[in-house]
Amino acid sequence: MTTTAGLPREVMGAMDARLSMPYTLTAGAATGVFLAELAQQRIVGTRCSACETIRVPAQDFCGDCGGDAHDLVIVPPSGDLLAWTVTDQGTVALVLLDGTDIPFLHQVVEGDPAALSMGARVTAVWAAEPQGAVMDLMGFALAPSEPVHAVEEAGETATPIEQLNYQMVLDYQHAYGHFYGSLFDGIKNDRRIRGVRCPSCRNVLVPPRAYCEACFVRTGDWVDVPDTGVLQACSVVHIEFIGQRVPPPYVYAEIVLDGTSTRLIHTVGGLSAEALRSGSVHPGSRVQAVWSDRRTGSLSDIDFFKVIDGPADE
Amino acid sequence: MTQIAIVGTGQTVHSRRRLDVSQAGLAREAVTEALLDAGLGMDDIDAVVVASGPAMFGSVNQPEKWLVDALGARYKPVVRVTSGGGTGLAGALQAMNQIKAGLARRVLVVAYDKLSEGALQASISTLYDPFWGREFAVGIMGFSAAYWRARMDKLGHTEEAAAMVSVKNRKNAMLNPKAHVKKEVTVEEVLASKPLCWPIKLLDVPPISDGACAVILAAEDDAAAITDRPAWIRGMAYYSEADNGPNRSMLQSVPLKVAAARVYQNAGVTNPRRQFDVAELQEPYTCFELSYYEGLGLCPEGGAAELIASGATEMSGDIPVNPSGGCMGANPIGATALIRLAEAAMQVTGKAGAHQIGGAELALVQAGGGWANLRGVAVVGATKD
Amino acid sequence: MGTDMKNRAAVVGSAQTEFRGAWSDRQHVDLITQAVSQALLGTGLRMADVDFVIDSGSDFLDGRSISNCGFLGAMGAHHKEESRVEEDGLWSAVYATTKILAGSGSVGLVVAYSKSSESDPRNFWSTLAEPFTQRPVGLDQHSAAGLYAQRYLARYGIDPEALRAVSDRAWAAASDNSWVDAKHAMLADPYWEEFVATPLRRRDMARPVDGAVALVVAAEHVARQVTNRPVWITGMGSAIDQHFLAARDATSFPAAAAAAANAFRMSGASSARDFDVVEVSAGSTVGELMVLEAIGLAEPGRAMDLYAPGSAPGLNASGGSLPADVVMATGLVRLHEVASQLGGRSAHGPTGATTGLAHGAGGIGMQNHCVVTLETS
Known about the structure:
The complex is a heterotrimer. Chain A is mainly β. Chain A has helices at residues 29-37, 177-190, 273-278, and strands at residues 3-4, 14-26, 43-47, 54-55, 71-75, 78-87, 90-97, 104-108, 121-126, 137-142, 152-153, 163-175, 193-197, 204-205, 222-225, 228-237, 250-257, 264-268, 286-291, 302-308. In chain A, the strands form five sheets. Chain A has a five-stranded antiparallel β-sheet, with no helix packed on it. A five-stranded antiparallel β-sheet of chain A has the order 18-17-16-19-20, with no helix packed on it. Chain A: Pfam families: OB_ChsH2_C (PF01796), zf-ChsH2 (PF12172).
């Protein structure tokens, strides 16, 4: 190992990462009925069994007093506009529907927001093709002559919509910073793996970092690390799951590169189906990086680690 | 210093998928049962601690903000503590400190997860550093299996020994009315079950559950007024470890040992195997229960396989572990740690019903999360000291 | 609530990184270690003296689950007791102080950070909303602030243009705060004049920034050893409102009032007027006005008076959260500011101040509030 200067030749900026995950969310009984009834162009609210407050959308419990809010009521699709705000997601509004106690948060659609006034009468605007979601009620529009209607007991209601399918997509640009930037710049351009040495405990840390966790002291010299090491632990991944980037089966590997004291997470490859099945790769095996043709500046620049001959670590 | 007791516990009946309630409604069910158990109403509660698994499990960020309405907690102090699978214990520790500090007399801790709502392994894989291994992860199953494999070589934690954990806990779950999975298995069936991340096989893995748990803690004098059967918390600690620091010990958990040492000292425990009547340990995979036997001093290092084989940790043994069935019976991850604490309280107060360990007076609780680097321990007793 | 504290706790050190719109060449861990090491510096305490760490950050902002797990070493939490409080960092400070008062430790480290530049912070806010009926209709921090603002301004007959006094004062103060990259002249850019949620413009909204802050809380016996000017924590309170914005009070923050009342009961204060230094968090200009009224610094509808030239010199001398909102850390930054000013470690704020109040908030439309009071002798 030799000590080298640690400045990357190019600035590694940020790595794009996307978390995209599917959900099957359950709304609960009252909100489920509320969502289902929108297809019939009916707005369902609840009356709290304890404080008698009527709120829309229907809720299983009352946020005012914590009571059960089980009595379903049909609320008229008309009311007074209490407040609105024009945003890039539309005109978000609070409407006090006739006969209710708690305003309803939704949108004002149609017309010029400049024509809105506090207290204006509004009425519901319905989607032509209901999807089983809150936007089946597209929102509210001005209706100056709309008379005041009364709340009615619900009677028979539609079967609640139990499940809402939802895809949450979150995009990130994770900064490399100096330490990861230096590491991945070296990996990308020179096929060099570099760590830092803690001046206190003398251990070499990969990935490199500003502080040694154990000593909480600023790390010192940069250190070149070989692409060989010992398989500290391994398992054979057979299952498939969303977001997986390597097709199973593969060997999940935690590797301690020679001279270092930290875990590098990768896979062991070049194994026969039989070797994978029997789990014959074992902790203590010597391994070496097999570099890819790709130069991405990430751990993917190593295709996998291969088992090599050598004295096993004990 | 004020002693603190558990004066009420509640759990949902855990299940694969609750279509009839929202995440908030699920938490409410457990709270309602805990309040009933304590004979209290929300007006009697000074503060609430919400403990849930990683928020990405359920797509709702800071879910305590949503749960407030379901908990009837408007205008109360509500704080969320999150610490992966051990979060329920971390939440209970927060509540204990509020009472010890004299800032609250009664604190409600509620923990839940509705795992049927999301893609679990994908969510757990987001634990990984985005630069460092996320693309190879399988939740933390690959990681857990890898170090089981290493312990197999060094400590003799064989596949058979782990299978016995599955057999024992699944059998115990048959007696627990709240358990999600009630199906007995044999060692042979566990060994022959489908490999997921070998050596972890299907029957080494707990179910994916919807469930919630609530526990009410109260100060010493108050506890005695609320119930004639308080469960006294004799010690609790929750320690962490840097996930990729130098020379991290992966065979024995240092934070577990540190937490256990501190809690045992507080509780006057010098011989855990002899002194504890029962233990509730959070085993996200069977292999972890073996490892905890050693880390908690129930047997010497390398003695776990022998301990499980001896039958000592069965219901009829001298140190029954997980009479509730543990995670193998139900695993709503964010609630799992608090369920362990609630079950321990039920044991020392004689409220555990069909899975009661006769005469249990001192119970051990363990829970943890993250990269096996967050580790908590608690001791619960029928008496204050 | 017990008010007779057997133990006392003090802030003995605190530090922040510079707050910038984007720290694009730093990772979370870099910002965290910088704040943590600086907070310990000057106290004479070493990391080995720290008994526990309580921290605030967001999985959603960080883009990783249980994100504290990845930052434990950077926070100095290795082999210590640690807890993640996934609220604004002021709640972490309350937990740390609680542990000291409970006798569970003598020295606690509190850490909070955010790098909202690594993602679209709107996702952080919109995912706070119930996903069935609230999130899909466009509820986020902007629309929530707009709805409060319209009703507040209408009720009290205030011209939206008058709000310029609030943002101008905040940004002018930030210009004098070398720890914040905001400069008053930046507001001249038309970008800040755009309406983002009528009647509010971008200049009315808290500006997300990157940064970290750390604070050392110690028990009395340690505090007296390491500093001759301990800043005692005299009161703490928090309270949350219901989730549905539509069901909350239209023009006031009762949860903020309840949080303040709890803190005042503990410290023996009667209102925020009793404090020399006040630092509050807010998501918007109108949100800031409503907080000031809730904690009793102004009568309902009169908080604008505090922005008249020369008034309230001890209020948000740092610039507050409008020019620099370190999303998960903003409340802890307020505490750091108050403690620094009282402890004689700050370049800004009124001279001779001995009492102070820090406020933090969380949730859409500032659903959750926390108040901490401090005193030095």
